[in-house]
Design a protein that fits this description.
Blueprint lengths: L1 E12 L3 E5 L9 E10 L2 E3 L2 E4 L5 E7 L3 E11 L11 H4 L13 H7 L5 H15 L1 E2 L10 H7 L1 E2 L1 H14 L4 E7 L9 E8 L2 E5 L11 E6 L2 H4 L2 E4 L3 E12 L15
Parallel strand pairs: 8-9
Antiparallel strand pairs: 1-7, 1-15, 2-6, 2-14, 3-4, 3-7, 5-6, 10-11, 10-13, 11-12
Length: 264
């Protein structure tokens, strides 16, 4: 499978800022080519790469100016190896987190999914979240977590993922969030999916059902959106002037929701 992805970002800066971008393909994915360019006003800036615990590649930039433009592109030739399973992950990703309040949703999970385990539980949670929520661009706030998403019954991909993760954790299934490039997604943007640990492996859980899981390309992995945001700003306010994402694949298959798929 050949996957070609790109990201273009233009930011307005109001003062000196340390910016952390999470837009590059994660380690372990075989890349045929890759380019990463950051320009502040008219000056080229070289970002510092920082690798996180799951092979996510963060790029840190110290920016002094009024405008920043980032251009990233990559071609992935084939799929990567399945990442090793760490025992600590089965603890971290069972705990409640900022956007995945599994402790608050425990009674709901117990009531709706009593007696279900393993693959049957994953399929049922995906169908339940898909049926309860309406996908609506701009319908949620950056601070919304799983509880508010369930009450509002609408959201975007991260909201679907947060609710799925919270319900699974409440049922003692480790679950985490992954940001991905998603060939076939419409509207095109960076996508968020959940991963659940069942039968000794991590499996993709995407209750939006908006892109074939087999073609997803991992960018970042974490507890929730707080760990996987494409931009983190440590400094004065920035303005997102333009964001454009592309992701295409030379191999598309209809996604059979009954089959388990790993993110590679």
């Amino acid at each position: 499978m050949k996957r070609t992805v790109s990201m273009h970002i233009n930011l307005g800066l109001s003062g000196p800022s340390r910016l952390i971008f999470s837009v590059a393909a994660a380690q372990g994915i075989p890349l045929g080519s890759e380019s990463f360019s950051v320009v502040v006003d008219d000056a080229q800036v070289t970002p510092a790469e920082i690798v996180d615990a799951h092979g996510g590649r963060l790029h840190a930039v110290w920016a002094e100016g009024s405008q920043l433009t980032l251009d990233y592109s990559a071609v992935a030739n084939g799929v990567g190896d399945v990442p090793p399973v760490a025992e600590i992950d089965q603890i971290i990703y069972l705990r409640p987190s900022r956007y995945c309040e599994s402790d608050s949703l425990g009674p709901t999970a117990a009531s709706e999914f009593a007696g279900l385990k393993g693959q049957e539980l994953l399929h049922t949670v995906v169908g339940w979240v898909n049926g309860k929520l309406t996908y609506m661009t701009g319908s949620s706030l950056p601070t919304d977590g799983a509880v508010r998403t369930l009450l509002g019954r609408q959201g975007v991909c991260r909201d679907f993922a947060h609710l799925s993760i919270a319900l699974l954790r409440a049922l003692n299934v480790p679950a985490r969030l992954a940001s991905v490039y998603a060939p076939g997604l419409s509207p095109m943007e960076l996508h968020a999916v959940a991963e659940a640990f069942v039968d000794d492996a991590w499996w993709v859980v995407d209750a939006t059902k908006k892109a074939p899981r087999q073609s997803l390309l991992r960018v970042a992995t974490g507890r929730d959106a707080a760990d996987t945001a494409f931009l983190t700003n440590f400094g004065p306010a920035t303005t997102l002037n333009h964001l454009e994402v592309t992701a295409v694949s030379d191999e598309f298959k209809l996604d059979d929701s009954e089959l388990l798929t790993q993110l590679r």
